[in-house]
TrEMBL record:
The chain crosses the membrane at residues 30-51, 142-167. Keywords: Membrane, Transmembrane, Transmembrane helix. InterPro entries: MT1774/Rv1733c-like (IPR039708). It comes from the Bacteria. This is Integral membrane protein.
């Protein structure tokens, strides 16, 4: 067996022109080549999708930063606890704030738990002074880009490896069947100790 990894990899892919390869071995080698191609395509696809998702996320950040404005709001009541499973505990509280146009506004806002009446908090508003969620941050953009950039390629690679596994299973079943058929031909003529 060759110690050179490149030679071994070429043999694994079926590029060694081995005359002893059976048709099922050639089929398995073809599936291996397909898996390698899908893996390479998945890496390129992941890079492209990740870059695109990151660019879209940065544009969304910039758009939201232009459209949403931080302002100081005064709470009109104590915050009542409202714990959420996937985020910080917040409370919906009545508050008052001034909009960009200088008009006074009142409404329900999300405040940190244990906030008290007359406490100042930062809220985000749109051009009309209505409360909106905080703008998207860079961390969210990076996580979204990484998720898209790795999730899609990972799914492609797992699918192609599953195809390789099924192919190997079918090839081994066929090889065992061929060995059994060959043994039924040889067994009657098999002699032990010349008998």
């Amino acid at each position: 067996m060759a110690a050179n990894p490149v030679v071994r990899f070429r043999r694994w892919l079926g590029f060694d022109r081995n005359p002893l390869r059976r048709p099922c071995d050639r089929a398995e080698a073809a599936v291996r080549r397909l898996v390698v191609l899908v893996t390479l395509a998945a890496v390129v696809c992941g890079l492209m999708l990740g870059i695109k998702a990151y660019g879209e996320g940065v544009r969304a950040e910039q758009e939201q930063a232009r459209a949403r404005h931080a302002t100081e709001a005064t709470l009109l009541d104590d915050a009542r606890v409202h714990a959420t499973v996937n985020g910080p505990a917040t409370a919906t509280v009545m508050a008052s704030w001034k909009g960009l146009d200088g008009k006074d506004h009142q409404g329900l806002v999300q405040a940190p738990v244990l906030s008290v009446k007359a406490q100042k908090i930062t809220v985000y508003t749109d051009a009309q002074g209505q409360p909106v969620p905080r703008p998207r941050d860079r961390e969210t953009t990076v996580v979204a880009a990484l998720t898209v950039g790795t999730g899609v390629p990972l799914a492609m690679i797992v699918g192609s490896c599953a195809l390789l596994g099924v192919t190997r299973l079918l090839v081994w079943r066929r090889v065992r069947r061929e060995w059994a058929d060959a043994w039924t031909v040889v067994e009657p003529t098999w002699r032990i100790n010349g008998r």
